[in-house]
């Protein structure tokens, strides 16, 4: 079965890699140099000597496997790579990983954590959500399409049910969505601008918060007859804000993304506002939905692309060009402003293909640099000293440019402030006029009520008078016929008196009706006048809003330019500081001073991506790597592959069906190991809804690794796992080699080989009858390496 698997898998993988490489080369063909070369030039400023050298093969292999596959390589893969003498083996390794099935799993884990921050399942099954992400990355779905689906899915379409988790499992809460979309989609954490302009970040305004919130304020949860939770949107509902510090600082807004225009919407009232009208157990669908405008507006916004470029860089480099990644603003400038803009341009040009951009970053010397300072620092001091004058001159030029940008920003800021100034008074005036309009309308409605009653009363009296007149005429005729009949004469006189009285009442009612009609006319005119006044105030407010809307993109552009120019100054100053520290090393005779300068240089170079950064494994990477090192993953892979290929005919494993089979195997392994991975997430991950990249250590983590039943059971020799393989080796050097390749993806140095030999000797395991002691010794050695700092971190 293993032979059958390998027979088809290797040609398939070669074909996938060949096709992918051709695509990536075409995608990057528009530049004079490959993107990874341009990355290196921008990071080093053209002086590649003043940076850490490339890391060794073992460090590269472990790093790239963890970043692109989410796990370490096997000992066999490590040995093959380290023994490979070809010059392009690193490129081949990157392409092989990007074409392999683990890449989609790794991207699923990265984006699941980024987008949902380990929130528990609520309205959408996590399995559907993760399957949606996995299938998207397996199919190389562009990231802009992914985000359009996340922001637009309402849960009604079964094909996008998983995508709907992003909004549904946040309960469609407008404030939660505003904060999370701001952070995750645009890299702007606006939470502290909800009640006032941000107290610490000058670039974040309360207005920004509510312009983003306006996309969500009409969205609510809808339960379809108690079965499926979906989203529904209302066609009406405005958004206003007011600072808690300054009651006059307020406004009304339409939806707007960073750098975009406020969205205008059609005026639709009543039934005309609905494509599907609201009814019992029926989800209403408006003809115009604000939330439906967000996906296109967001993904055409440059800040969206800049944020994703920064996050993809952070995925491989351990930190963003802007760090934290969700706090992009002028006081937190990018470490390499030109690089961030280059990556943004490239991501857009590559049609948001994540794999394409990640490949170029991984190919760069910047990504492959060592996390240790070079040994020949003293030889670099002359280059560093020579670089300082030119850098200082460049800094002075950039300072002048930044001052010009700051002046331009001040002008447009002043114009925007002036445009916003009338907003508060106009809102107050509109509120007064709306109140007056409501009051006069109420008075007009009240004035109309007695008019109708008086008119009805007059009509009844007039009809009665008509009938009474007819009766009087008949009564007179009867009395004239029988004048001696006193009763008839009296009746005629009574009818006449009643008629005369009714006529008098009709006259009075007519006068009263006229007065009521006049009063109603006055009230109606007052209501009309108040309505016109309110309309005029609203037009003035809309005119101010239009002026603000026209100025906001200019202000955004000026803010971006000023921040970019300021960031260039700070980046150049950082290079000067690094060059000065390196130049001072030559003159530092005091060991303490030399050590201090080396520490300073390490900090500066690491900050500027001139050397590799040391970063913790994510809980998922830790889980997969630990199980990979011990042999748990390979055992499950073999079992799943046997099951899948047992159910397949020979023709079904040929390309392209083999791709499907590979994914089936991958999904089966993930499903089998998921309980273990969840346990690692529970122990090593941050709280749900919180950023997940910070490292922390707890007693529970230590106890799990030292005493946990899972880890203990995995360390027991079983088949061809690590402990079983080591148990078969008698030569301490071979045993150390297999141990270190399996756990650390490197061969041991001589002192480590000697330590392994000494430990085994101290345990007295050199005789066959000591198998139990040797087993225990091997388990302890494996455990000690797995629990080490070297295993827990990427270097």
Summarize this, please?
This protein has 795 residues and is mainly alpha-helical. It is built from 29 helices and eight strands.
Fold and architecture overview:
- 66% of the residues lie in helices and 4% in strands.
- It has 29 helices and eight strands.
- The chain has helices at 2-27, 35-44, 57-69, 75-83, 89-99, 101-116, 126-138, 143-152, 165-168, 174-186, 206-213, 290-299, 302-317, 337-349, 354-363, 377-420, 423-481, 486-585, 591-607, 619-630, 632-646, 657-684, 699-707, 709-715, 722-727, 732-744, 750-762, 771-786, 789-792, and strands at 219-224, 228-233, 239-242, 250-253, 274-276, 285-286, 615-616, 793-794.
- A two-stranded antiparallel sheet has the order 1-2. Strands 3-4 form a two-stranded antiparallel ribbon. The chain has a two-stranded antiparallel sheet with strand order 5-6.
- α4 (75-83) packs across α26.
Secondary-structure blueprint:
Blueprint: H1 2-27, H2 35-44, H3 57-69, H4 75-83, H5 89-99, H6 101-116, H7 126-138, H8 143-152, H9 165-168, H10 174-186, H11 206-213, E1 219-224, E2 228-233, E3 239-242, E4 250-253, E5 274-276, E6 285-286, H12 290-299, H13 302-317, H14 337-349, H15 354-363, H16 377-420, H17 423-481, H18 486-585, H19 591-607, E7 615-616, H20 619-630, H21 632-646, H22 657-684, H23 699-707, H24 709-715, H25 722-727, H26 732-744, H27 750-762, H28 771-786, H29 789-792, E8 793-794
Antiparallel strand pairs: 1-2, 3-4, 5-6, 7-8
Helix pairs in contact: 1-5, 2-14, 3-5, 4-26, 5-15, 6-7, 8-12, 10-11, 13-14, 13-15, 16-18, 17-18, 18-19, 20-22, 21-22, 26-27
């Amino acid at each position: 079965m293993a032979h059958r698997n390998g027979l088809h898998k290797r040609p398939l993988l070669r074909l996938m890699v060949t096709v992918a490489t051709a695509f990536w080369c075409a995608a990057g063909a528009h530049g004079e140099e490959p993107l990874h070369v341009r990355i290196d030039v921008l990071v080093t400023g053209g002086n590649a000597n003043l940076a850490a050298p490339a890391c060794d093969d073992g460090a590269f292999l472990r790093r790239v496997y963890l970043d692109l596959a989410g796990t370490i390589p096997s000992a066999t893969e490590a040995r093959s790579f380290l023994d490979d003498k070809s010059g392009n083996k690193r490129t081949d390794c990157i392409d092989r990983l990007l074409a392999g099935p683990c890449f989609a799993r790794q991207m699923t884990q990265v984006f699941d954590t980024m987008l949902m921050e380990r929130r528990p399942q609520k309205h959408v099954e996590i399995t559907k959500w993760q399957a949606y992400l996995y299938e998207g990355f397996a199919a190389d779905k562009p990231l802009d399409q992914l985000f359009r689906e996340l922001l637009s899915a309402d849960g009604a379409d079964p094909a996008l049910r998983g995508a709907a988790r992003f909004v549904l499992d946040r309960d469609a809460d407008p404030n939660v969505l505003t904060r999370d979309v701001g952070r995750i989609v645009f890299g702007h954490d606006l939470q502290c601008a909800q009640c006032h302009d941000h107290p610490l970040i000058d670039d974040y305004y309360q207005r920004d918060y509510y312009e983003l919130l306006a996309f969500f304020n009409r969205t609510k949860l809808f339960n379809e007859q108690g079965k499926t939770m979906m989203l529904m949107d209302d066609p009406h509902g405005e958004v206003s804000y007011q600072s808690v510090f300054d009651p006059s600082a307020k406004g009304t807004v339409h939806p707007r993304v960073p750098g975009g225009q406020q969205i205008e919407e059609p005026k639709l009232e009543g039934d005309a506002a609905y494509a599907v009208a609201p009814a019992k157990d029926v989800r209403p669908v408006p003809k115009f939905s604000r939330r439906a405008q967000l996906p296109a507006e967001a993904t055409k916004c440059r800040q969206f692309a800049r944020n994703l470029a920064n996050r993809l860089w952070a995925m491989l480099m351990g930190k963003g060009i802007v760090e934290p990644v969700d706090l992009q603003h002028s006081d937190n400038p990018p470490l390499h402003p030109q690089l961030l803009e280059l990556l943004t341009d490239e991501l857009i040009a590559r049609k948001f293909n994540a794999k394409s951009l990640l490949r170029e970053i991984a190919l760069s010397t910047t990504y492959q640099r060592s996390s240790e300072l070079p040994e020949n620092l003293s030889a670099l001091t002359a280059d560093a000293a020579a670089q300082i004058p030119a850098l200082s001159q460049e800094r002075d030029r950039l300072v002048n440019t930044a001052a010009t940008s700051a002046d331009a920003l001040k002008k447009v800021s002043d114009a925007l402030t002036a445009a916003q100034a009338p907003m508060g008074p106009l809102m107050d005036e509109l509120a007064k006029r709306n109140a007056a309009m409501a009051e006069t309308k109420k008075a007009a409605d009240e004035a109309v009520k007695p008019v109708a009653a008086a008119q009805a009363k007059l009509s009844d009296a007039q009809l009665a008078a008509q009938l009474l007149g007819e009766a009087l005429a008949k009564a007179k005729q009867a009395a004239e016929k029988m004048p001696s009949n006193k009763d008839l004469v009296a009746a005629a006189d009574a009818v006449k008196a009643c008629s005369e009285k009714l006529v008098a009442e009709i006259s009075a009612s007519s006068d009263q009706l006229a007065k009521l009609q006049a009063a109603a006319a006055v009230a109606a005119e007052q209501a009309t006048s108040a309505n016109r006044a309110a309309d005029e105030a609203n037009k003035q407010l809309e005119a101010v809003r239009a002026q603000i809307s026209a100025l906001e993109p200019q202000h955004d552009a000026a803010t971006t330019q000023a921040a970019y120019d300021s960031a260039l100054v700070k980046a150049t100053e950082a290079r000067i500081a690094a060059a000065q520290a390196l130049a001072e090393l030559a003159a530092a005779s005091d060991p303490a001073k030399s050590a201090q300068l080396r520490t300073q240089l390490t900090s500066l170079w690491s900050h500027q991506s001139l050397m590799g950064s040391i970063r913790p494994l994510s809980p998922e990477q830790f889980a997969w790597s630990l199980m990979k090192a011990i042999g748990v993953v390979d055992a499950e892979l073999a079992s799943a592959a046997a099951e899948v290929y047992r159910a397949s005919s020979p023709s079904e494993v040929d390309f392209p069906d083999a791709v499907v089979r590979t994914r089936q195997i991958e999904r089966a392994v993930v499903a089998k190991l998921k309980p273990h991975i969840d346990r690692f997430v529970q122990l090593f991950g941050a709280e749900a809804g919180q950023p997940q990249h910070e490292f922390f250590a707890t007693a529970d983590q230590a106890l799990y690794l030292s005493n946990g039943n899972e880890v203990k059971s995995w360390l027991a020799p079983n088949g061809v796992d690590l402990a079983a393989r080591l148990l078969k080796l008698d030569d301490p050097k071979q045993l150390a080699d297999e141990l270190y390749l399996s756990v650390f993806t490197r061969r041991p140095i001589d002192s480590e080989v000697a330590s392994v030999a000494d430990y085994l000797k101290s345990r007295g395991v050199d005789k066959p009858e000591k198998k139990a002691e040797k087993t225990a010794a091997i388990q302890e050695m494996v455990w000690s390496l797995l629990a080490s700092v070297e295993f827990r971190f990427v270097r």
